[in-house]
Amino acid sequence: MPDSLFTELKRRNVFKVGVAYLVLAWVVIQVTDSAVPALHLPEWINTAVFFFGLIGFPFAIFFAWAFEITPEGVKRDYEVDREQSITNTTGRKIDFVIIGLLVIGLCILGYNNYSIRQSNTTDSGVADKQIVNSQSIESATGSSIAVLPFVNMSSDPEQEYFSDGISEEILNVLAQIPKLKVTSRSSAFAFKGSKINISEVAEKLGVKNVLEGSVRKFGNRIRITAQLIEAESDNHLWSETYDRELTDIFAIQDEISTAIVTALKSKLGLEIKIAKNESSSVNLDAYNEYLQGRFYIEKRKQQDLEKALVHFDKAIELAPDYAPAWMGKAWASAFLSEFSYGNIPNDVAMARALPAAEKALALDPKLAEAHAIMGLVQGYAQNREISISYYQKAIELNPNYAEAYAWYAGQIFEFPKKRLELREKAVQLSPMSLLANVNYGYSLVDFDQFAKAQKVAEHMLSIDNYSFAAYSLLSAINQGQGNPGKAIYNNYLSVQLNHATNSKV
Questions:
Q1: Helix ranges (DSSP H) in 39-86
Q2: DSSP alpha helix (H) spans, 249-322
Q3: Could you tell me if 472 and 487 are in contact, meaning their C-beta atoms sit under 8 angstroms apart?
Q4: Running DSSP on this structure, what letter comes out for residue 300?
Q5: Contact 390/367 with Cβ under 8 angstroms?
Q6: Which helix (H) or strand (E) is 152 found in, with range?
Q7: Quick one: pLDDT at residue 378?
Q8: In terms of CB atoms within 10 Å, which of 2, 68, 205, 268 comes out highest?
């Protein structure tokens, strides 16, 4: 019986179909692995292709056993007369298919090995021309600070955007100081609305100092209270209360930022003076519209991005020469692309974003965010080299700009080592960002650093128990470790959570 079964399996080309399927699946997986970063597609696509390739194998074997290809079409095996069977001819054709697929597979394997050798040999040569200098990659020296969201003490909850804006503007000023490590907005604002323990927050954010405060707006006046705390000792290094007319809000921001740097000066050894805010003459109503736009754009949901765009347009209408408003318009337009968080055709979204980014840069060539957003726009338009140059400039202007490092890394997939370094820097600056963490985790998997990647995934779940991105990373880790069962299970959880929350990282 076993010999008869083996002979029948061989006659029906079941073995050849199985080999052909496995080789084809391997080729598709290799092509997908290269195409995903090149086309800026989500990393979970690799897992999905592997999953569907795996479950398709038994179906291929079943159809090879149960059906036969004849000149009249596909028929059930028992419907074909043995004397009229052409399985031998079909088998020879399958042999040619297998040979062809093997040739393609060998070419892909050779190309991948060549690319790896090239990336390793050019890490200190050609790559350096496209990578931010080593000083920018290294961990920030000197002291460090996180600017927590200032509490809105106004009676109107709608003023929440204003208190957030004050915090963010102070953060932006401090972030431009090279020797001062400043945690990104997204990570600092992760603690918004929660009861804060300064030492615990500082430990999670990896900083030595924390700035917190409150904002109370009444009529045309504003009171800002700020205090700078050394986390380890819980000592108040500096505190101050400002009562001002709302018309001089930029002067208040400069005043607070200067006081903070002065308080840290002895530790940092800084001799840097903070430049006066060039936006001091901006129409206050336009500034309020801009702050509301920033409030909504940080939520990264389509409906919020649409609201943000409305506010940025209003800010531009009130103050046509206000560069940050044009930057915000470009940012929201780009994020509304079908390739990002919206559903607008990418070419349409970029046609709207590009002139806004150009206008922002024309108005303020030193606006780091405008350079980063232009890099984002050029990247979506597949202008990779141009995109890279804008990211480099953004980091030069603001060494603490976490998003610039993360977006930059997405453009250099052929330099995996440098991409890992950039993503690690993004996590250092924004440790609470799920996007920064998951990208860093995938880069660790690329280098078989599974233990580190596992810790990243666990950290992500500590931030959000329902993070589909964390389970997608766990799937990639298990796949890399040769645990296909766990990989499929975690991928299933990732897909289900993604559908349940209808969100993107």
A1: 44-66
A2: 249-268, 284-297, 302-318
A3: no
A4: -
A5: no
A6: strand 151-152
A7: 94
A8: 205
DSSP letters of 10-47?
A: HHTTHHHHHHHHHHHHHHHHHHHHHHHHHTT--THHHH
CA distances (Å), origin 299, targets 308, 341, 346, 392, 495: 10, 10, 20, 26, 21
Residue 237 DSSP SS3? strand
Q: What does DSSP say about strands 235-245 and 181-182: parallel, antiparallel, or unpaired?
A: unpaired
Q: CA separation (Å) from 76 to 5, 17, 71? A: 18, 16, 13
* Cβ atoms 278, 249 nearer than 8 A: no
Pairing of strands 144-147, 67-70: unpaired
Distances (CA, A) of 50 to 26, 119, 427: 9, 26, 28
Tokens of 405: 């490092």
Count of beta carbons in the 10 Å neighbourhood of residue 336: 21
* Helix 14-38 vs helix 44-66: crossing angle, to nearest 10: 160
Which letter does DSSP use for residue 73 in this model? Answer: E
Q: What residues have CB less than 8 Å from 489, skipping those under 6 apart?
A: 475
| Amino acid occupying residue 217 | K
Residue written as token pair 């141009």: 386
Tell me the residue ranges of DSSP E strands in 208-275. 209-218, 221-230, 235-245
374 and 357 in contact (C-beta within 8 Å)? yes
pLDDT of residue 368: 93
Calpha distance 469→451 (Å, rounded) = 17
Strands 67-70 and 235-245: unpaired
In this prediction, residue 91 carries a pLDDT of 66
Q: Which amino acid is at 305?
A: L
Contact 335, 327 (CB under 8 A): no
Q: Give me the average pLDDT of each 10-residue run along the chain (505 residues).
A: 63 73 77 66 72 78 70 62 64 72 69 49 38 34 77 77 80 78 85 82 88 84 86 84 76 74 63 55 82 88 94 95 95 93 92 96 94 94 93 93 93 91 94 93 94 94 90 93 88 82 60
Q: Tokens 């993604």 map to which residue? A: 498
Please tell me the distance from the alpha carbon of residue 236 to that of residue 249, in angstroms, as a whole number.
24
First-last CA distance in the chain = 56
**C-alpha distances in Å from residue 126, one per residue of 163, 324, 385, 393:** 45, 34, 13, 18
Measure the CA–CA gap between 118 and 115, rounded to whole angstroms. Answer: 5
CA 288 to chain centre: 28
pTM as predicted: 0.65
What is the CB neighbour count within 10 angstroms for residue 462? 12
Question: Which residues does residue 209 pair with via DSSP β-bridges, in sequence order?
Answer: 145, 230
CB 476 within 8 A of CB 445: yes
